[in-house]
Amino acid sequence: MTTENTGVRKTAGDDTAAAGKPPSVRPRALAWQRRRASAARFWRTYRTHRAGVFGLAVLTLFALPALAAPLLTGSDAADVTDAPGAPLESPSAEFPFGTDRFGRNLLALVIRGARVSLLVGLLAAVLSVAIGTLIGVTAGHFRGWYATVMMRITDWFLVMPTLVLAIALATVMSRSLLTVVVAIGVTTWPTTARLVRAQTLAVETRPYIERARALGGGHWHVMTRHVLPNVMPLVLAQTTLIISSAILAEATLAFLGLGDPTVVSWGGLLQDAREAGAVSAGHWGYLVPPGIAIAVVALAFTLCGRTVESVLNPRLGVSR
Amino acid sequence: MSLLDVRGLTVTYAGGAQAVRGVDLRLDAGRKLGIAGESGCGKSTLALALLRLLPAGTRTGGEILLDGEDVLAMKWGRVRAVRWAGASIVFQGAMHSLNPVRRVGDQIAEPILLHRRATPAGARKRTGELLEHVGLPAARASAYPHELSGGQRQRVMIAMALACDPRLIIADEPTTALDVMIQAQILRLIERLVADQDVGLIMISHDLAVLAGTCDRLAVMYAGRVVEEGPARQVYEAARHPYAEALSAAFPRIGDPASRFAPRGLPGDPPDPSALPSGCAFHPRCPVARDSCATDDQPLRAAGPQRRAACVRVADDEREARAAAGTAAPHGEPDSPEEARRTTP
Amino acid sequence: MTADAASAPVEGTGAAGPAKDGPAARGPRVRTATAYPRYVAGKVAGAAVSLLAVLVTGFFLFRLIPGDPVKFMTGGRQVSAEQLAAYRREFGLDLPLWRQFTDYCGKALTGDLGTSYQFSAPVIDKITEALPNTLLLTGTAFVLYTALGILLGTRAAWRHGRLGDRLGTGLALTLYSLPSFWLGLLLIITLSVGIGPLPGLFPTGGMESGGEEGLAYVLDVAHHLVLPVVTLVAVEYGQTLLVTRSALLDEMGSDYLTTARAKGLRDDLVRRRHAVPNALLPTVTLIFINLGRTVAGVILVETVFSWPGLGGLFYQALSVPDLPLVQGLFLVFAAAVILMNTLADLLYPLFDPRVGR
Question: The complex's ipTM?
């Protein structure tokens, strides 16, 4: 269902290529042509969803300064010892968001924080979706006890309080960004695994899989050449949605003091603010920028993810 | 006065699809009318339109006189009162048409209580009677739909349709999802109930053979119109419209081995109701189409005693017949749809 | 009248065909007296396996620590060799791993979760002390956000695609994207500390002001409860709303709703009696599966509002870090979620006759 737009068509080219070493590059070229066409079709439909376009615009707005952060803020923006202003200054022309508790420029810190939050969010989501896809595809392809055991594990992880598990992991491992990525990645994969497995089961009932087997295609061939291209659209949508929760999880871990203390992140800024007594002092200007940044980026990824989902599978999408 | 008199009914969906394009039908109490056609021909839309069950935004025109009262002109409160009490529907695919998580007894009793036909205790008793009437033990009232077989569920649907003693029952593909043995049982049951209770029955199906065996009269629909109408046996065995002919040939005839070896299908698909072909809507698929069919729309015209058909060939035949009989009637007058309509019983 | 639009099947587009492969071929399934007990046994066994898995995870997770757990616990302070050895004995770290595991399992099953390093008190005592407070906060918030989510989700589905639906769903998605701790901090600043001329309306934290008795005490606790509950409800109701909405939209196309309308039921009765009860069945399962997320919310909200519950305790344990306490709380949180889910599984067949019979 999901793949009717994109996946099925392109496998036709792959099929010829795989079945008996193509004499020319034509099938390959054909496959690429079809891929381009389906991408164009995807974009045409995506464009009609206002929420998705809004999300994409917001993400661009955040990604550009994050990428250009070293140019915009200077390398010493996060330096505690050589801060440009006095602690907890109010917003001014020089410091549009004011300063933090060490007198650093809060705007510069939020821009720098974007790098960490986005990077960790992306990496954690990729790790999570990779694990989920691996388990989902194999549990769908190989039946029997392997699938049973895998799905039991998945169900167990599914009901587990994910953040508690991630916190426990982050507690016992050393404080670093990698720890945060791993802690989030290994705890959030079960939904992906379930979705991918369901899709794999659906794909494997199709006749061309049988044909591929009859032509001598092994497990590896079937999974990588036929199943994987068909679950990719689903995986794409899932990645976008998981980035959103990964960014929230990263902020949470940083707020609980489990992040990397050497880098600036949005969650870490909020922890700083709380420790500096910004709450009881009513110093809300310190709290608002990082919090808004987290919320807006998480919302933007959610909107994009829901749009991608609904474009690829109209039965599942935004309307629902 | 007829039980049901449909005049010039048109249904246009919100998207612009013309699902029903001017249908005239009449049905008297105790009679059985079959409506046949492929999926997408508008026959189920017609069934839903009779009780105004179509989605909001759907435009409906014409008149639907149920016991002389126009359903389309009623206030909503009156429509709800007429629903089930005046006319009830046996839906296709009873598994989906019954609420999966409520006991079938409660679902049968629901309209009885709603239309204030009985007290709760009385409704329970009536439910038991209805179930026994359709050949199920009264104790099955406490079963859930998934605990019943397909045939049993269809019996429950029929019992439910009878709950408020309606004057008209509309059966929309009542036997489609059932195997042949059960199908026959359900058809006999419907026939018996109609005969016993003197209600009118409209039966909708894609299976012309089933309809011919059950109904008195038969209307064949194509692209939102009735293209042939007449006594069931005659329409089935000697259709005048090429579409009706193709439809009756599509099912093997019992006792006619020849038809089994030469099954005739119809190439192509029914037209998209939002982009109908010009002229006669059937002409792109018609095996005997002429050039004029692409431009001239054909109205229903008299095609023998109590029969009507919408085909240019029928007009020719009638003209020849008349010429042979030497009664040179002025052209057009007896062919008008208005005239043809009056000839139906 | 408007629900006609949402629930009626669309014919004439070729969507409805005669070739509906109904489940007619399937024979009747007769309820048997042993089916429900077997279902219960299966679910309970599954829960037992899950709990065992939690126990195993808890054990190995806290032995993954690179280096010496005792050194980790003492936080690199100057500790004499005898003290280290004493700690090792106390935590049983001088025993072989398998003995440690069996000891740990045996103790955990009898409720002995070790001794808190930070409070020098049995972990289980700290937990039972804080548990009622957490139950009060979580229970109140759970009831409210579930009710709110279902109510608003149903309304959104009825008004599907219209302005009300888009605004409601948009707001739910936005609140769902907020970090709960941040929302809590903002609420404290605006409503407890007060902004500008606005006085603080609610206490900044804790569960009671102290010194109150009887009704005054109850009101005082309720006063303290407001902001934490509002925060939790705000970030959690969105999920319930979306789940309810999509379940109801799924249900809206069902044929049995057309049957119900054909019977002459008013639209609101069609929804109340037929559509909503059916849509709530899958919703309930998902609400319980999502409880894990609520636990995370509780930890953060209790931390921010200094609520003396398990979440606040977890934060205190983390900042030391007090490993026996972290481990014990991990077990409690995980076990609680598994138990709630099992309970939901066991109650489910009472509402859905298709399951477990």
Answer: 0.82
